[in-house]
Specification:
Strand content: 15-25%
Shape: globular
Strand order of the largest sheet: 1-2-3-4-5
Mean pLDDT: 74
Largest sheet: 5 strands, antiparallel
Oligomer: single chain
Number of domains: 1
Radius of gyration: 13 Å
Number of helices: 1
């Protein structure tokens, strides 16, 4: 049974949701099965360990931006067919700083 992806509330503008989030190793993959980073303690982190986006209730990371005006939800696109997901690379150490990547570049 595939776990549901948690509701996303992100600091960066999000136009896509990750295709796969594997809770057993916190890996995040894009729609082309490319490893993007991790989801740990409510923070999406890039391959370098920097924060790209966050979920509601995120703590113990970099200062969070104001959430007074959230972006509109993206329009849903048809899901691509399932692909075999490659093994997860070993993530870099966690950093308490924001990534230079925006959400679209991350995914």
């Amino acid at each position: 049974m595939t776990p549901k992806t948690p509701k996303l509330r992100l600091g960066n503008i999000m136009s896509q949701k990750p295709k796969i989030w594997r809770p057993n190793d916190n890996a995040v993959y894009n729609n082309k099965s490319r490893y993007c980073g991790t989801l740990k303690q409510s923070f999406f982190r890039d391959i370098g360990g920097h924060v790209v986006a966050f979920l509601k209730g995120a703590k113990n990371g970099p200062a969070l931006p104001s959430l007074k005006s959230l972006p509109n939800k993206p329009t849903k696109k048809p899901r691509p067919s399932s692909k075999v997901v490659p093994p997860t690379p070993v993530p870099k150490p966690i950093k308490h700083s924001w990534s230079k990547l925006n959400w679209d570049d991350f995914i």
